[in-house]
Amino acid sequence: MNKYLIFIVAAGWLCISVAPPKMTPLQKLLEGNARYVQNTLEHPNRSLERREEVTSGQEPFAIIIACADSRVGPEIIFDQGIGDLFVVRVAGNVIGPLELESIQYAALNLHSSVILVLGHERCGAVDAVLKNTTSNIEEIAALIEPAVAKVKASKPANLLAAATKANAINMKNALLTNSLLQPLLTNKALTIYAGYYNLQTGAVEILDTSSP
User: Fold this and answer.
1) R_g (Cα) of the chain, nearest Å
2) pTM for this structure?
3) Which CATH number fits domain 23-208: 3.40.50.10860, 2.40.30.10, 3.40.1050.10, 3.40.50.300?
4) Domain residue ranges of the chain, discontinuous segments joined by +
C-alpha cells in the first residue's frame, strides 16, 4: 500500500502519493517465501497470458541453485511463476562445470540479477558424504567433501545441518570468484547469496549477506 505525505495548502488538503521503495530481487524472493510459510500464496505469473508472454523470450530475475530433492521446489517455496526463476537443480546443490555454464548463461545472457545457492534440511547428498556412502554419487560427493571436512573439526550439535550450510556457502564463494561474473558483481548488476531451507517450517534462511 502506498504511503502518503500530507501538505496543507490554501485550497485545503493536498495528498501526494509516494511509491514504496522498490524491492531488491532477494527481497522479492523472501517475500514470496513468507507467503508460502504463511499459506497466503498468490501463484503469480501462471496464467495463459503469462505463458504466451514468455514464448518470445525470458528474463528471470533470479537464478536458484537448488538440490534435486523432491521436497524443494523453488517456484513453489518462493511463490513465483512462469519465467520468474532460472532454476539449476542437482543433488546437493553443487556447482560443477555443467551447472556453472548454466548459471553463467542466465547471468550473462538473461540478465538475472541475483543468485541464491539453496541448501536444505536433511539433505541426502550431504548426509551420504558424512556417512561415507557415496559410491553412486562420487562426483557430487567430491564437491561436498570440503564443507564436511571444514565443519567436522568444530563438532557442531547438528553436523548435517552445519555441513549443508557450509556447502551452500562454499558454492556461493566459488561463484564470487568466477571471472565471467566478476564484471556484473563489480557493477552491482548481480548479487550472490547462500540459503538454507527448513523442510518443516518452509522458511528460507539467508546464511551470509556478504555478497558484493
Assistant:
1) 20
2) 0.89
3) 3.40.1050.10
4) 23-208
